[in-house]
Structures are given as C-alpha cells and as structure tokens.
Design a protein that fits this description.
By secondary structure, the chain is mainly alpha-helical. It has a domain at 6-54. It contains 3 helices and no strands. It is elongated and about 80 Å long.
Length: 89
C-alpha cells in the first residue's frame, strides 16, 4: 500500500489531467477508425466479390433412401437419443 500511495503522489493535478485527456483522445480516435472501417466494409466486399465471386450453385441436400418416410427418421432419432441418455432396449 505504501508503494502505491507514493506513486500516486508523484502525479500532480496537471499531469493527471493531461493523461486523462490523452486517454480520451486515444479512445475517441479508435472509435472513429472502427466506425469508418464498418462504413467502408460493403465497398471492400463489393471489390473482393469481383475477384472471389460467390458460388452460383449450392450443394443439393442428400437424397433419402427409397421407401423411407419422415416418421421412420423421427423414430430412429428418438431411439438414438433414448440410448444416448442411458435407456435400455
């Protein structure tokens, strides 16, 4: 505690005010840079889209085996959850 008290006594009122203003300016400039980056992001993405376009087609969902219905898949999922939770056959 004594060391902390002696270090804080070395900072005068004028120096503390300068440090506070400098800190606020640093935070203010950082927030402005972040907002400018977020504002310019759509433009950057539009330029990048010219060089790396999105895929035109997406992968199709896997096909179901013939003769299976939704209730069969639901029963299989419920049985797997039952076994996972420690249920018995």
């Amino acid at each position: 505690m004594l060391l902390l008290a002696s270090e804080s006594a070395n900072i005068s009122a004028a120096t503390g005010l300068a440090i506070a203003i400098t800190g606020m300016l640093i935070v203010f400039v950082a927030l402005i840079l972040i907002s400018l980056a977020l504002t310019g992001l759509p433009r950057v993405l539009a330029v990048l889209n010219e060089y790396y376009p999105e895929k035109a087609e997406h992968a199709a969902p896997p096909s179901r085996p013939a003769g299976t219905a939704d209730h069969e898949f639901a029963a299989a999922a419920a049985f797997a959850i039952h076994l996972h939770r420690g249920g018995t056959n």
